[in-house]
Design a protein that fits this description.
Jelly Rolls, Hypothetical protein af1432, 2 domains, three-stranded antiparallel β-sheet
């Protein structure tokens, strides 16, 4: 096929992603192996549950995506999400059937994955816009499918370790004693060791050194013990059996510990805030992302396509974080942290209200801004544009005062990193 004969296809391909980011010579090479096909109404491109090796792009007509429960979603060629491959997740979550006569082209999934890995987009705003466009129907379908797997028991939300659950339950009983709590804590040597270490840290150090669990609990108090045990238990969840996500999970752990440390030192300066609750808020603010990574291990598309995985995380971490913390019976304020901390513009309509409340989710967002300051994270907003930061300023903690608090607490932050990291 001559390049002249390829002209119609060369004009068509850049209307789709990622072909719009390719240079002319690579586009010509790809076009030689692509044919636009036509099919009649009722033709099935793929079935729900398939693990096929091709990706499909719709160029004209409409396709019905039919879920296992009969729910139907229609994609038309002029829809914005038709720029992307049709329902890429593996196994296929839908059966794709032509709702009208259609035309389409097919490309091998391996070729598409290589293209997406090789393209380097320098304009972050373009990247974010594309991710947001792509995230619509496909991420909603992923959340729906996730909920179905939860209902049928095919996927189970993570649970707090049994000892943490029992300690929380025991301490909530007004008749419990410190010796009862100490006995229960000692059934988990790792948590017991960390609790003694915290009791002897600069944050809680007393005249005498704590040598055992009961003396540590006596110094810390039952409420602080409850919060710290829960925090240690949460850290145990930052673990992946998949080598693909191990580095991602470790990065997630390190950032959560850093944010938790900043939350702790800032909460000490804020009336109404409990520093251990603030520490826990920092540790759990990305708990939904842990669930997405655990779930993604089962899906070819999410485990091999970083952009697609990041899109799924952005869309799902809030709802999944809410599910997990609700299941664990956490306080409403912490549920809100997991659900909304990724929404930098939360509360923007209320910022002019001098009585608006500064909550734990706001605290986590401020801690994030300081913890990630100077990083090359393209999603990090300007500090002055974030409602949470402006709410904090109304409490006489502007950027200079907040920076001074963090600077003065360097020793505490370093110790918290060591204990939890």
């Amino acid at each position: 096929m001559t390049e002249l004969e390829l002209v119609p296809l060369m004009e068509l391909l850049p209307k789709f992603s990622p072909f719009d980011g390719l240079d002319h010579s690579l586009l010509v090479t790809l076009a030689r192996d692509i044919n636009v096909k036509t099919s009649d109404k009722g033709f099935c491109l793929f079935e729900s549950g398939d693990y096929d090796a091709n990706e499909y792009y719709l160029t004209s007509g409409s396709i019905d995506l039919i879920a296992r429960d009969g729910r139907k979603n229609t994609i038309t060629a002029n829809d914005s999400n038709a720029r992307f491959p049709i329902a890429r997740l593996r196994p296929r979550m839908y059966s794709a059937k032509a709702a009208t006569p259609i035309s389409y082209f097919v490309i091998a999934a391996s070729v598409l994955d290589e293209l997406q890995r090789s393209i380097r987009m320098t304009d972050n705003s373009v990247l974010m816009q594309e991710v947001q466009q792509k995230s619509g129907d496909e991420s909603r379908s992923l959340l729906y499918e996730f909920e179905q797997e939860l209902k049928t028991g095919r996927f189970v939300l993570p649970s707090l370790p049994e000892v943490a659950f029992r300690i929380r339950e025991l301490i909530d009983n007004p008749d419990c004693s410190m010796s009862d709590v100490a006995k229960l804590v000692n059934t988990d040597p790792a948590i017991a060791t960390k609790l003694v270490k915290v009791a002897n840290s600069v944050m809680y150090r007393g005249v005498k050194h704590c040598d055992d669990t009961q003396s540590a609990i006596s110094r810390l108090g039952l409420i602080t013990t409850r919060q710290l045990v829960t925090s240690f238990a949460v850290l145990a969840l930052f673990n992946s059996k998949s080598h693909i996500f191990k580095e991602h999970m470790q990065s997630l752990w390190q950032q959560s510990v850093e944010v938790a440390a900043y939350c702790y030192v800032l909460a000490k300066q804020l009336p109404r805030f409990n520093e251990e609750e603030a520490l826990l808020a920092g540790l759990i603010h990305r708990i939904g992302e842990i669930v997405v990574l655990t779930y993604a291990e089962r899906y070819y598309d999410l485990s091999t396509d970083a952009q697609h995985l990041n899109m799924a995380i952005a869309m799902l971490k809030g709802p999944l974080g809410e599910m997990v913390l609700t299941k664990w019976d956490f306080s409403e304020e912490l549920v809100v942290v997991a659900k909304e901390s990724g929404d930098w513009m939360r509360g923007v309509d209320d910022i002019s209200d001098d009585e608006v409340e500064f909550d734990y989710c706001d605290l986590v967002q401020v801690a994030l801004l300081y913890a990630l300051q100077g990083s090359d994270d393209p999603t990090l907003p300007e500090m002055s544009s974030v409602p949470a930061f402006n709410k904090l300023k109304k409490r006489q903690l502007g950027s200079e005062q907040t920076s001074a608090i963090i600077q003065e607490a360097k020793e505490q932050i370093a110790e918290l990193r060591q204990i939890f990291g």
